[in-house]
Amino acid sequence: MTINILNTSTIEKIAAGEVIENPRSIVKELVENSIDASATNIKVSLKSGGIEEIIVSDNGSGIDDNSIILAFERHATSKILSFDDLYSSYYFGFRGEALASIKACSKVTVSTKTIDRDLGTKVQFNELDIKKSEIAMNKGTVIQVTNLFYNTPVRKKFLSSENVEASKVSELLKELAIGNNISIEYYLDDKLIFKTFKDSTIEQKMIQLISKNLEGHIISFEMQNELYNVKAYISDNTFFRANRKNQYIYVNNRIIDSKDISISIEKAYSSIIPNGKFPSFVLFISTEANNLDVNIHPNKKNISFSNFEQLLEDLYISTKNSLKPDDLFIHTPDGK
Ligand code: ADP
Ligand code: MG
């Protein structure tokens, strides 16, 4: 694997706003790196909501011994080379900024071993001091991040409570666990919060991560039009929530936010679940990258679609057809 330096125009397009905001943003970058490195088992542990410590370990490819320090330099990446490739790339990473940014705002130790080595390498970054040593470990990478924002107290003040920071991480890990075929273990202060399994079905993941009450109440369907392919898993009329928190929309395997898509799906439920309640669903939309416009910051989860009105209409119709009344338990006002 070779590591390249991005061209200036690409850097300028994406540099703005690229910041580490909170433990969630660190975990996101580290876990996405693990997935990019073909890891199938990823373990995330936080202490004090991640403010004191974050550890992400994976069984991925590891980092070549002679590239470790370079990997923590700004704009060093072994992945895609242009912004426009974002939604066509098989990789999450593309900026070569994450590790450098994390290193700039915390204390970082990386331990990593590639398959061709007997021993791993451990590198501790502490201000300008870099310590390198050998370590016995399995193939993969362990990154430990401590003392978040120790050198920028003002940013530290903007963090929420430990519980709120931890629940943002939990939501993120659910999104990643549903969207990728990997096992994710999540620990908070040494307590296991959840573990998902590689090769479990989307239905199993929804039951595990959203609610046990979804068991037997998930309907799946597929839909195609000229531009889009959609695989959908939707809750039936017996399961609804007070908010949209458990609606997951992926485009080419990246999670996005789209209130318009949510509303089109919800419209199909209008006569079968109470007003003001929301279904849960997982949608995987796939399309050619040139049908998407990503001229906004990639960490903001909004994108625009070609022929969007048609997609919304087709989603509404397919959802409505999948929620056929005879297949559903019908609520009556007196509960019979
Ligand atoms: P990017 O992901 O955009 O390439 P990062 O700063 O996140 O930039 O990572 C820099 C490089 O470090 C990656 O391109 C990859 O080569 C290497 N790397 C980072 N994390 C891992 C990991 N967990 N396993 C293997 N290689 C990694
Ligand atoms: Mg990355």
From TrEMBL:
<feature type="domain" description="DNA mismatch repair protein S5">
    <location>
        <begin position="206"/>
        <end position="324"/>
    </location>
</feature>
<keyword id="KW-0540">Nuclease</keyword>
<keyword id="KW-0234">DNA repair</keyword>
<protein>
    <recommendedName>
        <fullName>DNA mismatch repair protein MutL</fullName>
    </recommendedName>
</protein>
<dbReference type="GO" id="GO:0004519">
    <property type="term" value="F:endonuclease activity"/>
</dbReference>
<dbReference type="GO" id="GO:0140664">
    <property type="term" value="F:ATP-dependent DNA damage sensor activity"/>
</dbReference>
<dbReference type="GO" id="GO:0005524">
    <property type="term" value="F:ATP binding"/>
</dbReference>
<dbReference type="GO" id="GO:0006298">
    <property type="term" value="P:mismatch repair"/>
</dbReference>
<dbReference type="GO" id="GO:0032300">
    <property type="term" value="C:mismatch repair complex"/>
</dbReference>
<keyword id="KW-0227">DNA damage</keyword>
<dbReference type="GO" id="GO:0016887">
    <property type="term" value="F:ATP hydrolysis activity"/>
</dbReference>
<comment type="function">
    <text>This protein is involved in the repair of mismatches in DNA. It is required for dam-dependent methyl-directed DNA mismatch repair. May act as a 'molecular matchmaker', a protein that promotes the formation of a stable complex between two or more DNA-binding proteins in an ATP-dependent manner without itself being part of a final effector complex.</text>
</comment>
<comment type="similarity">
    <text>Belongs to the DNA mismatch repair MutL/HexB family.</text>
</comment>
<keyword id="KW-0378">Hydrolase</keyword>
<keyword id="KW-0255">Endonuclease</keyword>
<dbReference type="GO" id="GO:0030983">
    <property type="term" value="F:mismatched DNA binding"/>
</dbReference>
